[in-house]
Write a structure and sequence with these properties.
Blueprint: E1 3-11, E2 24-33, E3 37-44, E4 47-54, E5 60-68, H1 70-79, E6 86-95, E7 98-106, E8 113-118, E9 132-135, H2 144-149
Antiparallel strand pairs: 1-5, 1-8, 1-9, 2-3, 2-6, 3-4, 4-5, 6-7, 7-8
Amino acid sequence: MGIEIERKFLLRDDRWRAQADAGTQYRQGYLIGAKQASVRVRIEGDKAFLNIKSMTLGVRRHEYQYAIPVAEANELLDTLCEKPLVEKTRYIVDYADHRWEIDVFAGANAGLVVAEVELQSEHESLEVPPWAGIEVSDDPRYYNVNLVKHPYTTW
């Protein structure tokens, strides 16, 4: 069974950019965002995935991911996924023995920048970088599946 343990933070400033990689373009959409789980199609650069994630609040959730052909992912995104799609650039920053993913959103969610870090356990010690601000791990507004229904630009 796939388990994801992830904490999510808003950012204080752009100091993270000095340590970030070049970034990867993401385009994703949801086939279904039900009470129990979401089913997502995502293109990450030149790869594509079908992802199923539990809708449990908090840092620990069930997650399953399967590679699919990019052409089929594009077709699913264009024809079957709810709109607007989630568009973002993901940057990787290594800080204090953890890999941070910084998502800079575009389109209907422009202006939103979120940092995520995956952990091995819910009680794992974590040094939060100085550029990370308030934690939003338990706030469902920041879940990508909810950004489709209530884009950041409408808050």
